[in-house]
User: Which sequence fits this backbone?
């Protein structure tokens, strides 16, 4: 209110000075120019204020869109981080406030986080809480966690407003063949316990919003499918 | 850019229509009114645009201020939640985006959180991470947790940009005398283990930004001290 008023006043000074100059240039009459400007100030201050309010009420909402939580789940090597990074960059380009939450990054901040069912569930719940509070504050969240258990994923869903579960359903064989981080090799050699898909189960989501097998779809195709889904929130 | 341009156009239509009406009213000459309006459109579109950009660049920054994390620590019953609620309401009134994080609330969402040193430290670290990400996204955080251990409080400090530790140093005797939630009574009766101040230690912060003994200061005084400290971020 205060800001709008100051801005209106500031513009009125500039606007009316210009009007005065123009009218005087055309008529060479100071009295007429002054009267026209006086009338202009009286009428336009009100109209300008109404115009300003209408725009500031209408536009920001349409621009910021609805925040949401895009939750990638799937085996190690299914492409969660890669796809999530692309989507996150896309949203940022669109002027969105985006927070990118990644399993590896968060675990590097909390190195004591375990890999038992209890520890994983607790970890995912905490991240989901974080995501839901960010969403509540207008920040869109793009998260990539193996999040192997239905229980904690459903907990996260219950906390969030617009929760979009993206299940990368790439089969174990394909993920193991890629083995980008060399983790499957280590797990097969018995060097990693509780590795999802080897020593630990992955519970596929029964009703994800999006399901894509990245063995059958290229990165570009995968990104396109997701973007066409989230369009309604943009 | 696009929005500003549309808005400029919209205002020019309204603004020039009014100018035309006023000039015609004073001169009764359509040709003169039209010429003046043509000149006005040419000159004002540019000036208006510059004026708009100057204001949208200058004002929002000054209005939003710098986000920060206000972290209340102290014994149960020292007044953390009460004071934090008042400060949080004050900031919201000032137009801030504020997230209020409270020990009891968060524990009700995560009822399995334990009270051992390890569990408490891990809990506080996680909350601190959440606070730091909110701060990074422009949200000011007002948190109230007993957070009894220096280790995890310092971890939170290291994550946050503007971390303000508010230590409510009210002595145990005073907190126990208040015993708002009846917890001290239960702890003395041996019904609560690991209760801070009774079965568990509280490590006072060596260098808090603010330290207030709420036995010696009223609620109003306490609020005033804190507000005068955070003024620089508003």
Assistant:
């Amino acid at each position: 209110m205060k800001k709008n008023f100051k801005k209106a006043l500031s513009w009125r000074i500039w606007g009316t000075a210009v009007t005065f100059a123009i009218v005087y240039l055309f008529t060479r009459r100071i009295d007429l120019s002054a009267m026209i400007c006086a009338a202009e100030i009286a009428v336009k201050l009100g109209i300008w204020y109404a115009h300003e309010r209408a725009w500031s009420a209408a536009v920001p909402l349409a621009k910021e869109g609805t925040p949401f939580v895009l939750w990638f789940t799937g085996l190690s090597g299914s492409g969660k981080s890669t796809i999530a990074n692309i989507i996150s960059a896309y949203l940022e380009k669109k002027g969105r406030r985006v927070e990118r939450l990644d399993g590896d990054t968060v675990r590097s901040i909390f190195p004591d986080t375990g890999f038992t069912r209890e520890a994983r569930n607790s970890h995912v719940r905490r991240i989901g809480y974080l995501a839901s509070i960010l969403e509540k504050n207008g920040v869109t969240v793009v998260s990539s966690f193996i999040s192997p258990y239905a229980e904690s994923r459903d907990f996260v869903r219950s906390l969030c407003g617009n929760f979009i579960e993206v299940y990368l359903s790439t089969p174990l064989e394909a993920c193991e063949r890629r083995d980008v981080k060399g983790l499957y090799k280590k797990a097969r050699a018995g060097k990693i316990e509780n590795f999802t898909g080897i020593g630990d189960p992955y519970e596929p989501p029964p009703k994800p919003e999006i399901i894509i097998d990245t063995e059958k779809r290229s990165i570009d195709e995968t990104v396109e499918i997701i973007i066409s889904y989230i369009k309604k929130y943009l």
In short: The two ends of chain B are 28 Å apart (CA to CA).
